């Protein structure tokens, strides 16, 4: 059984064969003496023989028995993390699969060490979720429905200006003025917003004995219409990235609606256009990481190719 507490999409410079997804330690952020001292001072935890865990695109995680130290990237803003961690803590009381951070002695969920946010989380044993498993797919749809109902009730004070978006530079291959106009009209039709997980895919779940037991990685929380996350999650869990087939994704949407999620059911055109939005974001994100110095190799190009193909093939 794989055991880890870290999620996220695939990292530039790493390959993910189907049988080893989640086995690559994506970022090489060390557990320094300064981090050890901060964990001892703020959480009262003495670090002895830490175990480097696997998975995660931005953060490095180290297991300390029943707890995990997570070291994030410098660019994650404190206001974003405070908001998203507070949200995870509150929603965990209603959705038991949600893994919430352990507060430090002064109540904070993260402290800065060398410019990086350091947090502590409970350790959860389990294997990576499998979006090719029909039973797990339906579990995920049910979980997303319960999660959205809980998140719709959350009020954690002023919302920070956190929205999903592409990399800092436009990418010509995924430019589409018609999509831009469609998205503007979509947002006008869906003015009601609620907190959303932001990265609801199999790599951010843990499974034991065929059951989803944990939902990880709240770093990408944002405000938006739940239909947006429903479409993104349906595409991921519906095996769309592998097949370019929206049929299983639409089945996910129906299951979610039956489970009582807050999103109105999306049709095939809405699903396709929202997925194209997500694909554009992922391409922009990965390329921004490469421009910032992340390694890039043939595996990355092979991974990006179906994203670009899907962006074009899903065009209405």
Question: How would you explain this protein's 3D organization?
Answer:
The protein has 316 residues and is of the alpha+beta class. The chain folds into two domains: 18-127, Phosphorylase Kinase, domain 1, CATH 3.30.200.20; 128-313, Aminoglycoside phosphotransferase (APH), C-terminal lobe (Aminoglycoside 3'-phosphotransferase, Chain: A, domain 2). The protein is built from nine helices and ten strands. The protein has helices spanning 33-43, 78-91, 134-151, 177-189, 226-237, 240-243, 247-258, 268-291, 298-313; strands at 51-52, 60-64, 67-71, 111-113, 116-122, 127-128, 194-196, 205-208, 211-215, 222-224. It has a five-stranded antiparallel β-sheet, with helices on one face. Strands 6-8-9 form a three-stranded antiparallel β-sheet, with helices on one face. Helix 3 packs across helix 7 (247-258). It starts with 32 loop residues before the first helix and ends with a helix. Mean pLDDT is 85; it is low at 1-25.
Secondary structure topology:
Elements: H1 33-43, E1 51-52, E2 60-64, E3 67-71, H2 78-91, E4 111-113, E5 116-122, E6 127-128, H3 134-151, H4 177-189, E7 194-196, E8 205-208, E9 211-215, E10 222-224, H5 226-237, H6 240-243, H7 247-258, H8 268-291, H9 298-313
Antiparallel strand pairs: 1-2, 2-3, 3-5, 4-5, 6-8, 7-10, 8-9
Helix pairs in contact: 3-5, 3-7, 5-7, 5-8, 8-9
């Amino acid at each position: 059984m794989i055991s880890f507490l870290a999620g996220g999409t695939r990292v530039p410079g790493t390959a993910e064969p189907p049988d080893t997804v989640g086995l690559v330690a994506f970022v090489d952020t060390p557990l320094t003496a300064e981090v050890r001292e901060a964990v001892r001072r703020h959480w009262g935890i003495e670090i002895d023989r830490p175990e480097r865990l696997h998975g995660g695109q931005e953060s490095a995680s180290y297991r300390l028995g029943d707890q995990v130290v997570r070291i994030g990237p410098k660019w994650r803003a404190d206001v974003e993390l405070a908001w998203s961690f507070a949200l995870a803590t509150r929603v965990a009381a209603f959705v038991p699969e949600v893994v919430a951070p352990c507060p430090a002695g002064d109540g904070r969920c993260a402290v800065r060490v060398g410019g990086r946010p350091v947090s502590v989380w409970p350790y959860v044993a389990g294997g990576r979720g499998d979006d090719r498993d029909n039973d797990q797919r339906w579990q995920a749809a049910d979980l997303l429905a319960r999660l959205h109902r809980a998140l719709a009730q959350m009020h954690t004070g002023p919302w920070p200006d956190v929205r999903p978006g592409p990399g800092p530079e436009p990418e010509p291959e995924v430019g589409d003025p018609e999509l831009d106009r469609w998205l503007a009209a979509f947002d006008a039709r869906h003015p009601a917003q609620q907190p959303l997980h932001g990265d609801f895919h199999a790599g951010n779940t843990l499974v034991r004995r065929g059951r989803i037991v944990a939902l990880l990685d709240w770093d990408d929380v944002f405000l938006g219409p739940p239909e947006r996350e429903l479409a993104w999650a349906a595409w991921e869990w519906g095996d769309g990235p592998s097949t370019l087939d929206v049929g299983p994704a639409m089945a996910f949407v129906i299951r979610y609606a039956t489970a009582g999620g807050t999103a109105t059911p999306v049709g095939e055109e809405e699903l396709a256009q929202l997925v194209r939005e997500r694909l554009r974001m992922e391409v922009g994100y990965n390329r921004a990481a490469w421009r910032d110095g992340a390694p890039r190799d043939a595996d990355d190009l092979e991974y990006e190719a179906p994203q670009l193909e899907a962006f074009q093939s899903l065009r209405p």
